[in-house]
Design a protein that fits this description.
transferase, Rossmann fold, alpha/beta, 4 strands, 162 residues, 4-stranded parallel beta sheet, 11% strand, 44% helix
């Protein structure tokens, strides 16, 4: 389902006024708000996220805020599924998609490219390499991309090789 047929998107970095605009617009349109902020999904992660308060919500229903524990993983794939579930469960409702996580916004407006799972044996082998050996291997696979990655960023270097 294309969210652009069902929601108005309000996007931008933290602290530019998305909250006030979204509350005013949601009140006018009798809409609910879906947060597209990758940090606001986590319970208790309030500092640095400019997470909306109960008072600021002014009775407007908000989705995908404080839904997972900080020790849990929540991915863009989870976000896309959750947004589609909200839309499907509320076919007559108006929505605003509000936030600044570009990857999340892109996933529901353009869809995700589904990548295959990493091979377990490859992952195990890569974990045995020191940073220098991993860097050299990544350079053989994709020199241009590897030059943009910090030599100690093992996760991204491993993804180049995978």
């Amino acid at each position: 389902m294309n969210i652009l047929n069902r929601a108005i998107v309000i996007a931008g970095p933290t602290g530019v006024g998305k909250t006030k605009i979204s509350i005013d617009l949601a009140s006018e349109l009798n809409a609910e708000i879906i947060s597209s902020d990758s940090a606001q999904v986590y319970k208790g992660l309030n500092i640095g996220t400019a997470k909306i308060t109960e008072k600021e919500m002014q009775g407007i229903k908000h989705h995908l805020i404080d839904i997972v524990e900080p020790i849990s993983k929540y991915s863009v794939g989870n976000f896309e599924k959750d947004v589609n579930k909200i839309l499907n469960q509320n076919p007559e409702k108006n929505f605003l998609l509000v936030g600044g996580t570009g990857l999340y916004l892109n996933s529901v407006t353009n869809g995700l490219s589904i990548l295959p799972e990493a091979d377990k044996k490859t992952r195990e082998y890569l974990s045995t390499l020191d940073n220098q050996a991993l860097l050299e291997l990544a350079l053989k696979y994709d020199e241009e991309a590897t030059k943009e990655i910090h030599p100690n960023n093992r996760v991204r270097l491993e993804r180049v090789v995978e």
